[in-house]
Design brief:
Layout (H helix, E strand, L loop, with lengths): L2 H18 L4 H16 L4 H5 L4 H19 L2 H12 L7 H14 L4 H18 L4 H14 L7 H12 L6 H22 L2 H5 L3 E3 L4 E5 L20 E4 L3 H4 L11 H19 L4 H15 L1 H4 L8 H19 L2 H10 L4 H16 L4 H16 L6 H13 L8 H9 L5 H28 L5
Antiparallel strand pairs: 1-2, 2-3
Length: 454
């Protein structure tokens, strides 16, 4: 049995054990990385640790630390109520606001994980307050980031268009951008419907702060039923607070802009400016700002360190370290070259889309695109497949799966969600990521490749 096949089988065993036993998958993956790296790939410790995602570790720790402080001093509550006022109380619009916001950030040049790191904690805090599915809100944030991710001036768009130019392939910057935008918009619409987004419309508009929420809604013959009914003459009714997040003793009620809240808001703005304007690392910037706030107001941030999502950090870093071992020993290249050598171009195209989706669910999306697009050059040269459609399909397949909890964006969503059962939320993200991996490559292949775009 080849070393590459052994490494893939070990990965499958890690998934099975983590699914059937209460063992952190990251710890299992670290052990697998050590075993496979040492015994199969003949790597030393430095070779095994080469795949450790140090930058992602700092991002996860820094962002969750900063927003733990923001939750403790009431800043996230203030932001949630500001978001409600922005859409005039229409809770159903908030997921789409978050989708548009992350899309705008990536379209103008933000790296996708940076945009998600900025928006996800606010979006998930809103979801906890107003009983919105965290899966719905997290998916809207990630798909929004990918919707704008391939604009001609974006990071992803610039990289892919550069690869296309280097490989001397026909390209279309606008087609690439629109393909990703429309694909993610359609997926977001489906997720919105399936995860209860339509029910949010029935709530009408919410107003009020503190431990009670008023909902105004449609009319009914006898006062209505459900969450937002009114009598014949209209009006409002007082409903219980939507979640424990609004009523738990340690949850600060939305109130005036205190000095700690103002300082935290300034810190969040500084994070956005530093990341987008000066291209500074999001994790290092966030942890620096968190330390400054902790020093100024130690009482507000005393518990913040314990609220860093340490199990999630272990999970993600362990799995990505093992994926790094796979990359070091050539497993990913081995699989891609095997597919590229197939004599049927259309079949090779759909298999490359699936490899891009599966690997990108655990590894760098840009790295996967950089490896797979050159692998597609030989059969694109035969003229049976349009290069523009193939590149667009690979780009969408490799990025739309970033909802996976093992990807940077999915990990940020998992870590940012307050007041949730993280194991359950992890399983939901993993199941949703699996559905996306299974369905999207086939669909984009059917729509973009089979008709022969470009």
């Amino acid at each position: 049995m080849s070393p590459e096949l052994v490494s893939i089988l070990v990965l499958a065993v890690v998934f099975v054990i983590a699914t059937t036993r209460s063992v952190n998958m990251g710890a299992l993956a670290f052990a697998a990385a050590f075993g496979v790296g040492t015994l199969v790939a003949d790597l030393d410790a430095d070779g095994v640790f080469a795949g450790f995602p140090g930058d992602l570790f700092v991002v996860l720790v820094g962002v969750t630390y900063l927003f733990a402080i923001a939750r403790a001093n009431g800043t996230t509550d203030w932001l949630v109520h500001a978001a409600v006022r922005l859409v005039r109380g229409r809770v159903a619009l908030i997921p789409w606001v978050m989708f548009a916001l992350t899309g705008a950030l990536t379209a103008i040049g933000a790296v996708s994980p940076a945009a998600v790191a900025i928006v996800a904690p606010i979006a998930l805090s809103f979801a906890a307050r107003y009983r919105i599915s965290p899966l719905l809100m997290g998916a809207m944030v990630v798909h929004g980031a990918q919707a704008g991710g391939f604009s001609p001036i974006s990071i992803y768009g610039s990289i892919v268009n550069g690869i296309v130019e280097r490989e001397k392939l026909p390209g279309s910057e606008i087609t690439l951008f629109l393909a990703s935008l429309l694909a993610n918009l359609v997926i977001a619409g489906v997720v919105f419907v399936v995860c209860g987004g339509l029910k949010l419309w029935s709530r009408g508009a919410v107003t009020g702060t503190g431990t009670e929420t008023k909902e105004t809604g449609g009319t009914g013959s006898g006062g209505g039923s459900g969450t937002a009914g009114t009598g014949n003459g209209g009006g409002t009714r007082t409903a219980p607070a939507p979640t424990a997040a609004a009523t738990r003793p340690d949850a600060p009620a939305a109130g005036p802009l205190t000095t700690p809240v103002v300082a935290t808001l300034v810190s969040l703005v500084a994070l956005v400016v530093a990341v987008l304007g000066f291209d500074l690392d999001a994790g290092l910037t966030a942890i620096t700002l968190a330390v400054v706030l902790s020093t100024a107001w130690p009482d507000d941030s005393r518990k913040a360190v314990s609220e860093i999502a340490w199990p999630t950090v272990l999970l993600i870093c362990g799995v990505l370290t093992y994926v790094g071992v796979l990359d070091e020993m050539g497993t990913i290249t081995w699989a891609g070259e095997g597919v590229g050598g197939i004599g049927v171009p259309l079949l090779a195209a759909v298999l490359l889309c699936y490899i891009g989706a599966i690997v990108s669910a655990f590894a760098s999306s840009v790295g996967i695109m950089g490896a797979l697009i050159p692998l597609a050059v030989p059969f694109l040269a035969q003229g049976e497949i349009g290069a523009v459609g193939m590149v667009a399909a690979l780009a969408v397949s490799a990025t739309v799966v970033d909802v996976s909890p093992f990807s940077t964006n999915g990990a940020l969503v998992l870590a940012a969600a307050p007041d949730v059962d993280r194991e359950r939320f992890f399983r939901q993200l993993m199941a949703y990521g699996g559905i996306v991996v299974a369905a999207v490559p086939a669909v984009v292949w059917l729509v973009m490749v089979a008709p022969g775009w470009g």
